Each structure stands twice: as C-alpha cells, then as structure tokens.
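user: can you give me the structure for this one chain? tokens are fine.
assistant: on it. calling the predictor now.
[tool input]
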Amino acid sequence: MIEKIQQHIQQRCDEYVNEGTDNEHVDAKRNLMGTRDAKIINVRAKGKVLKKEQHLDETKVTYSVHWKFFIKHKNFYYMEEEIEKRLATFYKDELTTDGLIVEQEIAENLSELTFDTDERIPFQYNRLQAVKYAERWWSEYNPAYKKFENDCTNFISQCLRAGGGPMRGRPNRTKGWWYQENNWSYSWTTAHALHLYLQNSSQGLKARRVSSVEELMLGDIICYDFEGDGRFNHNTIITGKDANGMPLVNAHTTDSRLRYWSYEDSTAYTPNIIYRFYTIVDDV
C-alpha cells in the first residue's frame, strides 16, 4: 500500500510539469502560474502514513504529503511548499479513492464580540519577528499553544503575537484578542472573528483596511471569504513577494509556505471569493 501511495504521489508530481492532465487541482495551479507568467520547473513530494484502518477487505489510509514546488518567475526563483492531509481507500490492496481531507472550522456565535477594552497597551509592530515566526512554524505546531484541527487563525494570531501584538480582554472570550493557557478569545482562533477584530479594533493590535493587495507589506494579513457569503473562513500572513511585487503567504490547515496570495489553486476557491487586505498599524 505504501508503495502504491508513493507511486500515486510521483504521478501527481509528473502532472505538474507535463502537459495534458485531467486533474482539476493540478490544472488550477498550472493555470494560476500561467496568469502570473510563472512556471513550475520541478516538483518533489514526500508522503507519510499517519493512520491505517482496516475493515474486511477495505483499508483506509490517512497520510500527509509535503510538496515542494520549484518555481521560476521571470528572473526570480523560489520554492513554494504545502503539506496536504489526504485519505486513500484500498480494496484488496488496490487503490480505489484518494482525496484531500478538508478541515471545517466550527461556527461560533460571534454576535456579542467587543473589540476595545479599558486596557490601552502601546504597541509597535515588529514585522521581521512576525515573518520569522511564520517561517519557523509554518509546517509545525508550537507546543506553547494548543493545536486546533482548523489551525489557520490560531497560527496567524501566534505570528501577530510574535510581532509584539498586545493581548487584552482576558478572560472574556468575546472581548479583545488574547490567549492564556487553556483559554482564548474567539478572535484568536476563529477566522471571521479575527477579521472583525482587525476591522474594528482602535487600540493595541489594530489594522487599517486597504483597497489593493499591492499596498500590503511583509507581516500584513489577508482574510478570505471563499464562498462570498459574508463570513470569512481563512487568514494568511505575507512572508514574501514575487517578481511582480505580489504577496506570497504562509498559512496553516493546509500548511503552506510562500503560496501565491490569491488561492485560486485551492480546492476551497470559488468565483465568489471575497478578500480583505489589512495592514497592521502601530498604536504609540
């Protein structure tokens, strides 16, 4: 089974660099590269079995794949990385299905959120430290924090905290932005709540919404509403720029490093997607 998974992964590697595939995800990534005048010149991937479950002649294998895409963008070369979690089904040792495991964020009642408190803490954002943290932990989970199944906002909050973001509002989960041992605010872990916090906070950790992605700097945040229904469900942090000066981002859940900001190659992408661009501002 492991050999067949590795063969399947290698086949996908080949599809990224060869013409004429019938894989929608591969096509989406190749098309995105084409619109940017970029090209995938090599792909490497390594699989790791996480869990096996057997029932009669059927075996389900949960595994991860660490992808490394070597990309040429004009005269600029860089490596984009992603870690997928997948589920393969075998019947009598023959691979029958293989698909991406998509973690769903638990919907929280956010109607009582408040964004400012009586605790005004002067703050100057250290973008370098935020980016260094995002680079260190993009593919791992800092044991100082709880790991969530849908970890994207928890990870972004950690990056903002590494950049000096002041926590306030404890212990009320509907107030401010904070993490303390086994408790945390909704804005720390929930994508839509962090979006609302960045949009509304006027002290401590705060941001200014800008109209175009080109205005963002390293350490800034992009929020994504994939369905366009008004509820934001993903966040990323800018950790680099491509040859056109467009943002490359790091994220958790589908752990990603130096991924192109638009997520048009994501299985979550829809034509109705809405983006919000937030630049972090100092409170001095």
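assistant: here you go. The first helix runs from residue 2 to 17. Helices lie at 2-17, 24-35, 127-137, 152-162, 186-189, 191-200.
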